[in-house]
Amino acid sequence: FFQAEDGIRDFCLSRGLGDVYKRQLKTHNEKVLAESDMKVAQMKLINLYQELIILNDMEEEDNRLISKLFETRKNKAEMEANRAKINAEIEKKAEEEVTNEKELADYIKRFDESIFQGDEVKRKKAYDYFRSKHQAKKNKEEAKNEDDDEEEADEDDFGLEDELMQDFDPSEIEAFRQIENSPRLKDIVEHRFRREDSKASLQNERMDLERQRTQLENRMKKVRDEVDVNQKNLLEFQKAKLKKINKIDVSMFLKLEQVRNLHKARDKAVYYRVFSADCIEFGSLLSSRGLLEEYIVHK
Length: 299
Prior knowledge:
Blueprint: H1 16-114, H2 120-145, H3 150-167, H4 170-181, H5 183-246, E1 250-255, H6 256-264, E2 270-274, E3 279-284, E4 293-298
Parallel strand pairs: 1-4
Antiparallel strand pairs: 2-3, 3-4
C-alpha cells in the first residue's frame, strides 16, 4: 500500500510502448482497408465504363431490332383483332341467314296458299309478273340514288308495262292487278321478294367476308414468320452483346483462404505481389472463362 502524500491520491502504471504500437498498427490497418476500398471502387468504375462503351456502340442496332420486332408484333395483333372481328361478322351473317330463311319459307307457304291455290301454272306466271315489277321498282330506286332523271325512270315504267303486255294475256294481267289491289296479298308478295333479296344479299356479304378472312390469314402467316425471324435476330444480337461484355477484364477481392483454393485450381498460371503484410495483389492469367482477373486480397 502507498500513502498519498503531497496531494498525490493515486498512481497509474505506465502503459509502455506496446499500447503505442497497437494504436499505430490499428491505424495502419484502417488505412490499408480504406485504400483497398478506394481501389475496389476504381476498378468497378473501370468495369462499368467498359460496359458503357460496348452498350453505347451497340445501342442503335439494338433499338432498331427491338423496334422492328415490336412493329411486327403490333401488326400481328392488329390482324388477329381484325380476324376476330370478321369471324364475329360471319357468325352474325350466318344467324341472319337462318332467320331470313325461316321467314322466306313462311312467306312462300303463304304465297302458295293465297295466290291461285291448286294452279301451279298460274301461280308461276303470277310470280314472274310480280317479280318483274319488283325488280323494276328496285332498279328505279337505285337509279334515284344515282341522281337519274325522274322522266327517265317514268319511261322505264312505261316500257315495262309494254313488255308485260307482251309476256302475259290481258286476262292474266287483270287477275294480277286484282291481287295487287288486295292489301293482304300485296303484303305477302312484297315480303316474299324482300326475303329473297335479303337471302342473296346475305350470301354475298358472307362470302365476301370469308374471302377477306382468307386473304387476312395468308398475310398473317407472313407476319408470323417475320415475328419469328425478328425475334431470332434480336436474341442473337443480345447474345453477341452479352458475349462482348463477358470479355471485359474484371477485378474482385479475395480472402487468403480463397487464394489458397485458387492455388489448387487446375490450368491456372498464378502470380501475386505483396504490398504489405496485410495487402497482397493477386492475379490469374487464365480464369475459368479464359479472362484476365485481378484481385486485392486482405489478410
